[in-house]
Amino acid sequence: MKSFENIDVKSVREAVSLLQKFHQQKKSAAVVGGGSEYLQLMKDHVVEPDYLINLKSIPGLDYIKEERGGFRIGALAKLVEIEEHPAVREKLLILSSAAGEAASPQIRNAGTIAGNLCQRPFCWYFRSSNFTCLRKGGQVCYTVTGDGRFHAILGAGPSYIVHPSDTAPALVALGAQIKIAGPTGEKMIPLEKFFVLPSVDYKRENILNPAEIVTEIFVPTPKAGSKGFYHKVRERLAWDHAIVAVATIVESSGSVVRAARVVMGGVAPIPWRAAKAEEFLRGKRIDEATAKQAGEIALEGAKPLKDNVYKVKMAQDLIQRGLLASA
Amino acid sequence: MAQAPKEYSIVGKQTPRIDAYERVTGQAQYTGDLQLPGMLYARVLRSNVPHAKIISIDTSKAEKLPGVKAVIHHENAKVPWSSGGHTHRRYIFNNPVRYVGDPVAAVAATDRHIAEDALKLIDVKYEKIPHVLDANEALKPDAPKIAPNGNLSVGKGAFSAPIEESWGDIEQGFKDADRVFEDTYITKHVNNAQLERRVSIAKWDAGKLTVYASTQGVSNARTDIAKDFALPLSKVRVVCKYMGGGFGNKNQAQDYDYMAAMLAKVAAQPVKLEFTREDDYIGMHGRWASEQHYKVGVKNDGTITAVSLDAVTNMGAYRKQSGNLSGTDFYNIPNFKKVIKPVHTNTVVAANYRAPAYPQSVFGFASFLDQVAFELGVNPLDMFMRNRAQKSKGKLPFTSNYLEQCILEGSKRIGFSEKWHKPGATAGPVKHGIGMALGGYPFRPGLGAATIRVNPDGTAHVLVGVTDIGTGAKSTMAIIASEALGIPLNQIQLTNGDTDVTPYSVGESGSRTTAFTGPAVVAAAEDVRKQIFALASAPMKSKPEELDLRDGQVFRKADSAQRIALGQIVKDSGDLIGRATTNPNFPKEMDGKCFSAHFAEVEVDTWTGHVRITRYVAAHDSGAILNRLTAESQIKGGVVQGIGMAFSEELLIDKVTAIPINPNYRDAKVPTHLETPEVEVIFVEHYDPYGVFGGKVVGEPPITAAVATIANAIFNATGKRFKELPITPDKIVRAVQV
Amino acid sequence: MEDEKKGTRLSRRSFLKGIGGGAIGTAVISTGLVKSDSAEGYSPETSGAGGNRATITLKVNGKAYRVEVEHRSTLAEVLRDELGLTGTKIGCDRGECGACTVIINGHNMYACSQLAVWMQGKDILTVEGLAKGDKLDPLQEAFIEHDGPQCGFCTSGQIMSGKALLMKNPKPDEAQARRGLSGNLCRCGNYNREVAAVLAAAAKSS
After folding, report:
1. Is the CB of residue A71 less than 8 Å from the CB of residue A65?
2. Pairwise CA distance, residues B135 & B316, whole Å
3. Which of B428, B634, B687, C5 has the most CB atoms around it within 10 Å of its CB?
4. Helix (H, G, I), strand (E, B) or coil at B623
5. B64 touches chain C (CB under 8 A)
6. Within an 8 Å CB–CB cutoff, is residue B113 touching chain A?
7. Structural domain containing residue B558
8. What average pLDDT does the segment B179-191 reach?
9. Is residue B628 part of a domain?
10. Could you give the domains of chain C?
């Protein structure tokens, strides 16, 4: 790990102004929440900031508050707190499940919700100090000629990473919003708009500018009659990222779907919302056939690499299973 | 069943490890925990190209970094590493470099962060040489030559290449068959992945080199170091008190021991060289990958008439160990022939990992037999029972063989006959299946040494050269000593792993510690008991041969009420020393082996490709069990390593750049608590006449059958035969889609 | 310069030895970070001369330790190298194996993935802090009885995760015990034993 200066900040404003200052001085700086993920990148020389701005020293940014219409979750709320929060468990079960599926107990005890949403890809080429890949300023995405068995089948190119977050698909399915603080103040945007496709910018995974940080997530409580499902397929049951993850929320009246959200993790560089499948489901009864069809529609346009064709069927099956479970 | 000659006091019981307290309190000092005054920290720079000549290496910037004390590389540290290569001379730094990971330089500095910073300041210029990664490609005539004599690895001594073995008449065997089947099975490079990263601390005192190593064998490490540094054995001391696992790849001395020693010499300060986890994955060896082509002749009832095996094993850039495949050992094969070609490629080195030649070829052969049984319409239980080994190599009797009982007891415990169904027959996306396979490992006794000191209070010191890599070897030696001496375990102090203090031991590999060093402990105990009985003769008014010693009491065999505490007998005698160097063997016309039959039930989710092992039974013939507690742990652990090899583990190498892409626990996917079922262990116990207290071998066998057992259960569940490891979700989903 | 540095390291150790063996329960003084050098103009060439350092107070196993560290030093490194608490092992240094698991403010975490400078004011519990004098923690006793350690290198971490679980859930069932320990690899594969030990300790404490 390259030497750096750690700075414990006491407020969001202090963090933002430091980021702005270092940016203006053309110095590299990064913010950390739990730190588990970012320190590994630093140890592997993937990132080498001169300044590390520690947000954990900001008091009171780890709240989980239930309010009329939804939950406000502070950026520093730990994954374990989200997983175990009784009201979250009761009303946002898929978020609780997704948080509980992340990495390992030790990481869920340290890792924050904002950190989970802002983590960098776990692509093995990106994480290796031996490859200067496209995302790290190099010329090629090594996945194209190399081993892309865990990589993207949707929305990819020129970079083929998948977004590694467990909570992101669940939060997008729940219609969450994200609050961002920057030099000009705060803004709240739909979480869905937070993530960036490589075709827009292959060096970043989200829209955060150099002097911006995430401060809060707002999650609306699903309407009565909604049922959710979160399932993550992986090789190992602990400390592994999704090969395919599916988060669904189905709001029904009687047995007819009023609205559905279908979001996939592990298949695209962003949490991938299957809008056409959602549209297809509206007004239908979910049975084996419609669930299967929705899965097929969701994967229309998939462009797998040579090594990850299997993900298409796996995702289709999982959506089918998810919808049947949420019906 | 052969019976033990007498009732034991402690052998065969459940005995907690003698050093368990130290291990659960954090007091156990592993090599990396030691700090010496003035100690420097060292890191290794490795090649990032697969095959290249080093044109120049500029270390000047690194040397100028404050805190850096020594930089060594192929120009200034041309140290041969004898145990690192069997086919051509290997140095600790080689030019040309032959794989991504070949060490290029090492730096010692005042702390590890500075040493790491310094690596980035070393400028190496390479001239690339064409490379080859695939073992079959490497055998082609125009392939880049990695070793001076080409890529078919030509060995020395025991390692002749290709490895050929045959008996009977293979052609006649196939003629006698009703059916002949052929198929190919593929296994991958799997790293040993022990939790303790490699570390070595070296220091020089007036020409004497002390290495605190993380080694499976202090004696053989000392021999290697003395040879390669041209020092007399008396000037080399190797110490290893606690060892954080190795599973075969920490035996002997390793290049990092040598680098630490060289850096310490240059810097004139002690040096601790630590590997990173990535270093451990790519800089040290894992299990050799293999491509196994089998041809099997059978009668219609499943009886094997002939087996031939043609295989290549990928040994990586240097040949360190055999590259053999021996999974056919557990079957009666009247006519047999194998030709195995160990091959050099520009990849990470392969060598010993727990039961080196077995799990990959048991996977191949037991999967294939299961397939042949399916084709013949024979139940796998009948197939394995019918063809189980009854003689070694078609002719030699075993010292003991309870494989049949293993099959019977294990299959009964799991209910194999009731649960087995036509492969793939269960309905729905989640399929259930059951499978089995046979395994084991060779057993033979050999050279060992031990010293026992009986103190004037009747307590005893046992000195043995063993390291304890987690098998419980220290505890086993203490138990043997306690039983053989007649002194309670809690009055025995065991000192191990220090070549200045403890006598020779073989090195904890090949499951040999009990069989090699155990007899020496028994003999040393007998030696000191003679001295005790001679002393006791007068006060007990008996002839020495009329006396016995148990529970620390000397007594008359004829009347055990006549007894004197050992401490009384020896209180004025100074230290009594018993010692022995032993080298037992069994007759040439016999062979030794332990056996196992494993059984698993699985649940395969064909939508997600996820396999859950719902039940696992491991039945073992290891002779008599000296410590049931630690022996059971060994069996359980071997199965878990097999689970990793079956489901997820494989060192992946990028085909374009030749760089390993998953050299870490996250991406190599070592199994966790959540993949692990309760492993039910059955010991079919009996007394082997050539084992210490009737014991044979425990450590290596349990991994051998595990992979094939799981693969066969997946076949039973899905009806799909997986012929290439690891059996990952993507492969399962792809197979069931067809 | 380099000799000076060696000097400070040695004296720091002897200082620590002093407080380690002395009065227990030194009040924890929360100090701000002492910034030594500015990071401006940083390059690897200068980092060896000191880099970014800070003097911090760590509260470990109820004792306060004042120690000078680099900003880039992890808690695991400082526990082992500076405080001599080598029961905490480093298996991967990437938060993937769990050998370095310690309990921070009641939660098990990877000590390799926390900077020491983040740890001021936290209660850190390591394997060395479990026993009360000569009396082992029931979980340690259960690890001995159930053969929890094979090579023993992961054992401290398994115990600390087990302890954190039992602090939160004194009566876990088997599935909960496995999940609680799931961030701790054991390459010896002794998972059955480690889970059995946690369950036995839970049963014992009833």
Report:
1. yes
2. 9
3. B634
4. strand
5. yes
6. yes
7. 445-582
8. 98
9. yes
10. 2-39+49-90+115-122 (no CATH), 138-204 (1.10.150.120)
Same domain, B518 and B621: no
Pick the CATH number of A226-326 from 3.30.390.50, 3.40.50.1820, 2.40.50.140, 3.30.70.260: 3.30.390.50
Q: Write out chain B residues lying below 8 Å of C90, CB-based.
A: 32, 197
B616 and B696: one domain?
yes
B641 contacts C2? CB cut-off 8 A:
no
Question: Are B211 and B72 within one domain?
Answer: yes
Three-class DSSP category at A50? coil
CATH number for the domain spanning B78: value is: 3.90.1170.50
Chain C closest CA to B617's CA: distance in Å? 13
Chain B touched by A38 (CB under 8 Å)? no
All residues at 6 or more sequence positions from C41 whose CB lies less than 8 Å from its CB, including other chains: none
Which DSSP state fits C79? I
HSE-up of residue B410 (Cα within 13 Å, Cβ side): 37
Mean per-residue pLDDT, A152-175: 98
Whether residues B672 and B701 fall in one domain = yes
Distance from CA of B730 to the nearest CA of A (A): 6
Express as a percent the part of chain C with pLDDT over 70. Answer: 75
Whether residue B183 is contained in a domain is answered as: no
Residues of A in contact with B647 (CB under 8 A): 235
Other chains touching C, judged by 3 or more CB pairs under 8 Å: A, B
Tokens of residue B531, six digits? 């001295």
* Amino acid present at A3: S
Same domain? For B68 and B215 the reply is yes
pLDDT tens-place string over residues B363-404:
999 999 999 999 999 999 999 999 999 999 888 999 999 999
A270 close contact with C: CB closer than 8 A: no
Closest Cα in chain C, distance from residue A110 (Å): 7
Using CA atoms, how far apart are residues A23 and B666, in angstroms rounded to an integer?
Answer: 33
Q: CB burial class (10 A; 0-12, 13-18, 19+) of residue A27?
A: middle
Residue type (1 letter), B399: T
ipTM of the complex: 0.97
Please write down the long-range contacts of A10-15, taking CB distance under 8 Å and 24 or more positions apart.
A10/A57, A10/A58, A10/A59, A11/A58, A12/A58, A12/A61, A12/A181, A12/A213, A12/A215, A13/A181, A15/A53, A15/A55, A15/A58, A15/A213
Amino acid letter for position B315: M
Domain boundary among B551, B582, B613: B582
Nearest to C167 by CA among C157, C180, C155, C154: C180
- In a 13 Å sphere around the CA of C14, the CA atoms on its Cβ side amount to 6
**Phi and psi of A104, rounded to 5°?**
-140, 165
Q: B596 and B707 in one domain?
A: yes
Per-residue model confidence as pLDDT tens digits over B442-488: 999 999 999 999 999 999 999 999 999 999 999 999 999 999 999 99
Minimal Cα–Cα distance from C36 to chain A, Å? 10
Per-residue pLDDT, B155: 62
Closest-CA residue of chain B to C189: B637
Map residue B658 onto helix, strand or coil.
coil
> The tokens 């730990």 sit on which residue?
A78
> Which domain-ending residue is among B582, B615, B642?
B582
Residues of chain A with Cβ-Cβ distance to B665 below 8 Å are 239
Instruction: Assess whether pLDDT exceeds 50 at residue C7.
Output: no
Residue C25 has pLDDT above 60, yes or no: no
Counted domains in chain B: 3
Rounded-to-integer distance, Cα B17 and Cα C190, Å: 14
The mean per-residue pLDDT over the stretch C187-204 comes to 98
Whether the full predicted model's pTM is greater than 0.90, yes or no, is yes
Q: What is the pLDDT of residues B195-233, one digit of tens each?
A: 999 999 999 999 999 999 999 999 999 999 999 999 999
- B551, B656: one domain: no
B174 pLDDT band, cuts 50/70/90, is very high
Tell me, what DSSP letter sits at residue C132? Answer: B
The answer to whether C156 contacts chain A (CB < 8 Å) is no
Which residue of chain C comes nearest to B281, CA vs CA?
C92
